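testing teh design pipeline on a random one, pls ignore if ur not involved
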């Protein structure tokens, strides 16, 4: 893979990470104020955990892209 390809992939990974961070922040901020969170606490916690895991994995992907770029010939 060329460095330009890795830059494009890293850029997409960074955008995904930022998007998921925003979703996680919005979800955490509204968790207490949403009626369905009280009615279905397991569902809301599962959704929060899913978004948190996706955000964590996107950070891992961003770091992997940066390492690949640094190691590219």
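output:
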């Amino acid at each position: 893979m060329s460095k330009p390809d890795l830059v494009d992939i890293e850029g997409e990974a960074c955008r995904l990470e930022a998007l998921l961070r925003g979703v996680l922040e919005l979800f955490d901020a509204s968790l207490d104020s949403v009626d369905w969170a009280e009615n279905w606490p397991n569902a809301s916690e599962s959704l929060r955990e899913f978004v948190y895991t996706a955000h964590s994995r996107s950070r891992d992907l961003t770091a992997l892209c940066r390492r690949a770029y640094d190691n590219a010939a």
